[in-house]
User: Fold this.
Amino acid sequence: MDITAVVLLCVLIIVIVVLLLVALPDLWFRALVSGTYVPLLKLFRIRIKRLDARLIVMNYIKARKSGVDVTVDQLETHVQAKGNLDNVVNACIAAVNGGIDLPIRVAMAIDLSGRDIKEAVRYTISPRVIETSVITAICKNGIELAVRAKITLKANLERLIGGVGEETVVARVSEGIVTLIGNTPTHTEFLEKTDVITKQLTDKTVSDEDAAFEVLSIDISKIEIGRNVGAELDIDLAESRKIVAQADAEQRRTDALAAEQEMRAITQEMRARVVAAEALLPQALAEALERGNISPTDYYKLDNLISDSQMRKKIAGSDQGDMLAPPRKKSKLA
Assistant:
C-alpha cells in the first residue's frame, strides 16, 4: 500500500476522533459534575451508533439523581428499540416519589407495548374516575331502570402488560349492573339497597385477576325509572289473544253463514219438489173423476176446503210464511 494513502487514512481517522471528542466533553463533564460518571469511551460508542447521546445522558443524570436504578446501557437499548425514553424516565421518577415499586425494565416493557407509562403511573398515584354510559335493565316486576355509574380505577402496573383495559372493565361493570337489576324483585328494592348492591358489584369486579386496572369503588350517580315493560308485554299479549279470538269468531261466523246458505239451498230444493208434486194434483183429480173414484160433489167439497184454507192463511198473514226464512226486521216507523 502507498505510504501516502496510509498517512491520509490516519489523518482522516484522527480528524473524526477529534471532532467527536470536541462534541462529547460537554456531556461527559455534566455527568461528572452531577455525580453520575459516564465513561468517555461509552459516549464515543453511543455517538458511533448514531444515537442521541444528549438524550441518553440527560435522562441518565435525571434518573440517577432521583433515585431510579438504571444504567446507560439500558437507556441506550431502549432508544435503539424506538421507545419513548423521556416518558419512561419521568414515569419511574414519579413512581419513586409516589412510593411505587416500578423497575426500569417493567417501565420500558410497558412503554414498548404501546401503553402510556406516564399516564399509568399517574393513575396509580391518583386514581381515575370514569362514568359509564346509560345502562338500561328491567327488574323482575317489569319496571325498567336507566342507571349511570361512576367507576374509580387504579392502574395495576404488574398486570398492565397483557391485562384487559378500561373498556373491558367498564363492560364488566355494566354487565354486573344489568345482572343485579335483573335479579332484583322490584325497582323500589333496588332503589333502597343501592349501596349494598354497589358494594357487591365492587367486590366481584375487584377479584378480576386479569384486569390492568383495579376497581376501587363503583357508585351509582343517576337512576331513572323508565317504562313498565311488564305491563306493555301483558297488553301486547292480551291484544294478540284478542286478535286470535276475533279470528276464531270470524271463522265460526263464516261457517254458520255457509251452513245457513246450505240449508237454504236444501229448502229451495224441497220447495221445488213440493211445487212439482202440487202440479200433479189436478191431473190426479181429473183421472179420479174419469175413473169414478170420486164424485163431482166430493171434488167441489175438496175445492171449497182448499179455498177455505187459503182464506184462513191470508187472514192469519202466513200464506207465504217460511219457517226457515230469517225473521223480518221491524221498521222504526211502524
In short: The beta strands are 128-131, 135-138, 143-155, 213-228. The chain is about 65% helix and 10% strand.
